[in-house]
Amino acid sequence: MKRKQRNTPQRSEILKYLEGNKNHPSAYEVYYAVKKRMPNVSFATVYNNLKKMTDNKEIMEINFGDKKRFDPDTSLHDHFFCVKCSRVFDIPKVMKNVSYKNFKILSHMTYITGVCEDCIKKGG
Amino acid sequence: MKRKQRNTPQRSEILKYLEGNKNHPSAYEVYYAVKKRMPNVSFATVYNNLKKMTDNKEIMEINFGDKKRFDPDTSLHDHFFCVKCSRVFDIPKVMKNVSYKNFKILSHMTYITGVCEDCIKKGG
DNA sequence: TTATTTAATTTGAATAATTCTAATTAAGAA
DNA sequence: TTCTTAATTAGAATTATTCAAATTAAATAA
Question: Given this structure, which CATH class describes domain A9-71?
């Protein structure tokens, strides 16, 4: 008998922080924000929840090499990392349908690194 | 006066292990292999060298979320990760010229996740 | 050639990221 | 309302990565 996902206060706070968040926060940033409202929450709980939410496709995991970041927007899109300001930008999907040999494709993401418009204007 | 890169025995062993290697080893795998020939080498040295080689574009860093892997093939190509056998495959570049707004593009890489042909045949 | 100088490199130690597991708890069943 | 149990929590452990003091390759001077 499969139990449904439990609705814990920790999970609610994490979701509340992420909803509509365009900043692509890291696990630590989520932890830091949630901790303000729930001082006893543990970093492991934040990790566990972020992992579960990613598995459930409630959020998306972004991996630019330094550390994982999280995006509550699960619509089809890719990401751009600015090496000057370190911000992550949402960008339209570079390639919608990808295939290779007879391999079964489950998901794909394109990571772009460069300098954003703001930083170019400031003299990047 | 800019000094040139130094030619240390540690660096040579790391390069020797990587050259022609199609297995996309992790930093630990490189360390483990090099340690067999140089028992006193430190993990930090392997890290430092892999980072420097990546900066020099002598090798390429691959980031599928679990941990960093390294690829001595720096020609234009993307990567596929098989969720069954955990192998990383080289695949042709999904998209050669990428652009977005006026952003300056420095590099881009597409990561594909799925099931490889071998694993499908075995009943994936 | 050999000694001196110095910045690149090395490495043990420190820090940061992530996972593990025993204890706790939300919610379905009695 | 109480009992039961699998999902969740969180401190501890592990794994990944970086730091900084000591070492060393190689450029330059003697």
Answer: mainly alpha
